[in-house]
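Sat 14:20. Reprocessing the chain from the morning session after the first attempt stalled halfway. Input below, unchanged.
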Amino acid sequence: MSVETKFSIKDLENLSGIKAHTIRIWEKRYNLLSPERTNTNIREYSVCNLKKLLNVAFLYNNGFKISKIAALSEDEIIEEIENNISENKEEHAITALKTAMFEFNYPLFSNTLTKLEETKDFRALFFDVFIPLLNELGTLWHTGTIDPAHEHFISELIKQKIIVNIEALQKNKNSKETPTFCLYLPYHEVHEIGLLYTHYEILKAGFNTIYLGTNIPIPNLKHILKHHKNIIFLSYFTITPKTSTLEEYIVEYSNKINTGKDQSLWLMGRETENIDEQAIPATISIIKNHQALILELKNLKKS
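Finished this time. C-alpha cells:
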C-alpha cells in the first residue's frame, strides 16, 4: 500500500508563498482546504490540497479576490487559469512543474514544457523557468519542505531535457581550429545541471567539447593533454570539495596540470563567488554565471 505525501501548513507556505496565517483564515472563512488532523490535532495537507492552493495562489497573485476564487469550482479555477496564462506563462509553468514534482507526474512535466517551447527557445526556457524553479527547490530543500525523491525526480527530468538539446547540437560539425572545452565535475561534486547547461551553451557557440561528467580527480586531466592542444578545462563547483578548499584545489591544479602548455581553466558555480581573482594564476578564470559565460564565449569566438 502506498503512503500519500503529507504537508504541514508551513510546507504549504513555503511552496505557495501564501502565509500560514492567511491559509488558516481562508480555511475558516471560505472552507478553501480540508486538512486532516493528526492525533495531536496538527493540520496535515494532501497533494490535492497543495495542488488546489497553488492554483488559488496563481489567481490571487494575478489580481483575483480570494472571495471570488473561493466561490469557484475546481474546474472553474482551472478555466480562469487558462484565461490568464498568456501574460504569466513562466509563473504558471513553475506552478505546474512543482505539481508534477509532487505527483511524480512525467506527462504534466512534458506537456508544460511543450507548450512553452511553442514560443520560447531552449535558452529562454532555461533562464525563465528552470533557473527560478531550481532556486526555489534549493530553498525548499533547506527548509525541509521537499524530500530527496521529489528533488531527484524533477532534477533528473531537467537534466534529460538539457541532454536532448545537447545531442541536437552535437550533430553540427565545428571547425577543428577552434579551442576545445573539456568539461568535468571535481571529485565528490554531483550537482550536474549547471555543467550540463554550460555544455549546451559551448556547443551552441560553435566550440568543440569533451564531456567527462562527474567525480573527475585532477590527475585524470593529464590524459586529455596527451591528445589535445589548445584545451580549455571547465569545472563547476556547487559544493566545496570534501578533501580541500577551492583555493587548495586551484593550487593542486596549477601544480599538476598547468604546465605552461596552451591550456587554461574556467571555474563556475556558487563556491567560486568568494575567490579572489587577483590571487589566482592568469590561466584560471572565474565565470560568475551563465550570462557571463555566453559573453566570454562570444569574445573567444572573435579572438
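The chain has 13 helices and seven strands.
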